[in-house]
Amino acid sequence: MSPETILTIILVIISADFIFEQLLDYINLKSGKYELPEEVAAFYEKEKYTKSISYQRVQTRFSFITSAVSFIASFLLLAFGGFGYIDELLRPYFDHEILLALVYFGALYFVSDLLTIPFQLYNTFVIEERYGFNKTTAGTFIADKLKGYMLAVLIGGLLLGLLLYLILNIGQDFWIYFWIAIAVFTLFANMFFTTLILPLFNKLTPLEEGELKTAIEDYSKRINFPLDNIFVIDGSKRSNKANAFFSGIGKKKKIVLYDTLIKNHSTEELVAILAHEVGHFKKKHIVLGFVISIVQTGVMLFIMSRMILNENLSLALGAEQMGVHLNLIAFGLLFTPISKVIGVFGNIISRRNEYEADEYANKTYNGQALSSALKKLSVDNLSNLYPHPAYVFVHYSHPPLLKRLDAIARL
Ligand SMILES: [Zn+2]
């Protein structure tokens, strides 16, 4: 394929993706119900409901602006050979191919992040603030940024360096070795996320003795599932939005509850949320998710290996010679449609798993308490109650609230 054809395909892909996403956003916004529906009135105050509709609208508009800016920037950069131009600027200073690639990606990452900072600031300190979610201070925002850069340089640099080293030294067969490395890394990251990464950003404290802890211990004994690593995280440092999750595998697994979740829910509701999380474990969703992600990575790396040494990819981006880093960018863009399809399949499986976990919580604990917790979470987070089915199909990893309540009620 000639460089011109490759560039045309890339431009068509990013344009189609942009239009597709904007259409989805649009029909999703249109599917909202503006009058408070009767089925919702029991747990939603009218004022809060109106606020949630307005929140959806503001979020959609904001996401349209950010995507449009990023689409136009990418389109122009590609159409005028900007990626190749940056390569020519940097190349004279670095005669080591891996170093050149790391600096290239570093520069690209840093510049694009700087350009998105105004949008992040607006989102956090204007939109989230207006709807009463924001708790982030300027200090936290800056500290988060710096820590994020540090992690990107450390982890991103390490993985990228390894990938480039393998490609340049082994050639097409690099993908098998890098696949193994990624699998080990994912496992490692999963095991040590709550001990190494999370404490950089949040404070984790063991759940103190009391009614909640006793209730959790009682439940844990009844289902014969050890729940002794329960931590409370200071999510309220950044936002009023609440969450809970399991992390780690085997004996190292930890349960993390947001302080915002504890504050707004009854003991029964909290145990029901935990029971749902235990359901994910018992139904092997965690292991399944891990296996699926490893297989996906393998498929992606294999396809990448067929294209990564093709000089025309670099030329398509406006370069005068082949550069593995340029080929990686071109591959990433060409892979967009496939990764989209993979994402949709992932969401289908994830939504099915959510129903199963709800079912488990209902069977081993209390479906009503779970329903009530889900309603509260949805109201407090101003979630969209009437998303368009097409939007849900593509983007939702969890079924919409009313579908979940329905399913729990039918158990
Ligand atoms: Zn879940």
Bound chemical compounds: zinc ion
Low-confidence stretches: none
Q: Strands across the major sheet, in which order?
A: 1-2-4-3
Radius of gyration: 24 Å
The beta-strand count equals: 4
SS strand fraction: under 5%
How many structural units, i.e. domains?
1
Mean pLDDT: 93
Shape: globular
What oligomeric arrangement do these chains adopt?
single chain
Helix residue percentage: over 70%
What gap, in angstroms, lies between the N and C termini? 55 Å
Largest sheet, in brief, is: 4 strands, mixed
Helical segment count = 17
Structural class: mainly alpha
Order of helices and strands: HHHHHHHEHEEEHHHHHHHHH
What would you say about this model in short?
The protein is mainly α and 411 residues long. It is built from 17 helices and four strands.
Task: Give a verbal description of the structure.
The chain starts with a helix and ends with a helix. It has 411 residues and is mainly alpha-helical. The longest helix has 34 residues, at 46-79. Helix 5 (97-130) packs antiparallel against helix 6, helix 10 crosses helix 14 and helix 10 packs across helix 15. 23% of the residues are buried. The protein is globular, with a radius of gyration of 24 Å. Strand 3 (244-247) and strand 4 form a beta hairpin. The chain has a 4-stranded mixed β-sheet, with helices on both faces. It has one domain (3-191, 283-409). It has helices at 3-30, 38-41, 46-79, 82-90, 97-130, 138-170, 174-201, 211-223, 259-264, 267-282, 285-307, 311-316, 324-334, 336-364, 367-380, 389-395, 401-409, and strands at 204-206, 230-233, 244-247, 254-258. It binds zinc ion.
